[in-house]
TrEMBL record:
This is DUF7344 domain-containing protein. Pfam families: DUF7344. Residues 21-87 form the DUF7344 domain. SUPFAM superfamilies: Winged helix' DNA-binding domain. Gene3D superfamilies: Winged helix-like DNA-binding domain superfamily/Winged helix DNA-binding domain (1.10.10.10). It comes from Halopelagius fulvigenes.
């Protein structure tokens, strides 16, 4: 009888953690989560899109606010919702308990922009 762990048990993957890291791999989603955390966990879509666009201008000055809003609406916010990190009502986007927990556990920070 072998005392070594079986190959099967050493390859078990926590799909929830994988999903979380996949969602957090994108800087735009991290910017959105950080902004929500800084604003008591919620913001209107327009407010969130403007804030994310403003944070990204230093990194990618060519991205227009409209492009940021479109990608948030069609790609990033749905992915955050599917992962259970945010939820959306007609008026607000809010962090969920899982989103709050992920932000407490993982060092997701955004460097403040320099003021001109």
């Amino acid at each position: 009888m072998s005392t070594e762990p079986s190959r099967e048990s050493s390859t078990v993957v926590d799909r929830s953690t994988d999903s979380l890291f996949d969602v957090l791999a994108d800087a735009r989603r991290r910017h959105a989560l950080a902004y929500l955390r800084e604003n008591e966990g919620e913001a209107s879509f327009d407010e969130l899109a403007d804030a994310v666009a403003a944070r990204e201008r230093a990194e990618r000055p060519a991205d227009a606010s409209e492009n940021v809003a479109l990608s948030l609406h069609h790609r990033h916010l749905p992915k955050l919702e599917r992962a259970g990190l945010t939820e959306r009502t007609a008026d607000l986007i809010s962090l969920t308990e899982r989103g709050e927990s992920a932000l407490e556990t993982l060092p997701i920070t955004v460097v403040p922009q320099a003021t001109n």
